[in-house]
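TL;DR need structure tokens for one chain.
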Amino acid sequence: MKSLSPAAAALGAALALCALTPAAQAQAWPVKPVRLVQTLGIGGGSEPYARLVAQKLGEALGQPVIVETQGGAGGAIGLAMVARAAPDGYTLALASTSSLVLRRFLAKSVPYDTLRDFTPIILTGETVTCVVASASLGLNTLPEVIDYARRNPGKIAYGSSGIGTTHHLSGVVVEHLSGARMLHVPYKGGGDALNGLLSGQVQIVFGIVGTMAPHVKSGSVRMLAINGDKRFYRMPNVPTIGEVLPGYARPPAWNGFVGPAGMPRPIVRRLYDEIHKAITQPEIVERIADFGFVVDTANPEEFAAHIRSSIDLFGKAVRAAKIEPE
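>> reply
TL;DR here they are.
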């Protein structure tokens, strides 16, 4: 038999690969490292969280899971990269309510459509958020800050991890309910917002508890309130914003893993199973709490439904409050 030329052999191999069914491709997955895009910026609690999950997921898959932090625009920059990636299971994102839901209503331009461009994999839980003040401000409680901002419009600047984030919207709602007038300063991520607080660029910051806790412990930052529906079990003496500002309800703040639209179902299921197994181990639950997250999972179908309902509910709230995009 006449042997094939190298070019013909290569073409035949390529055609054979293309002929594989999605199920067959999924059985072979993964055969190379997986990229996990962490969309929430450098220096925040989400970065060590992503690296912990990546380590455990890599051990389960037998391939490295490499974390790539792409912050900015409330997570939209990193999430847009994932939306453009091939749906082969080798590019994932750790995303949040801010980038998947809120930004579409609070920013004039968003480079993706949440419902069209992503495959939900697993809802991993709630983000424990808070509002803190610089110790140099000399105001020790949230009522004191609100009272000062009422009497001195524009003298208090609050930092957030970007336009269209839960933290940004939290400041808007506090202003709306209290009559305080503050200046919003958006940063690329929670770590940058904290640096802005420590350097005196802003006086208060809405952010993730895990990012702020070490500086609260050192005394350079004052914890004013937990930004949630209930107190954080790690800080039982810290009140919620709603306790001191009647009528306040925190904007949604959850997180989860997504991939590009069109990922093969077997790969999605494998990812869900392995991430769920990793983050629900008791010792991992406690480590995740150190970063400012509470584990509460949902499967791909439940996560997709949760995203849709969040978009619907938040859209109604934004229209009712007449909040204009920036």
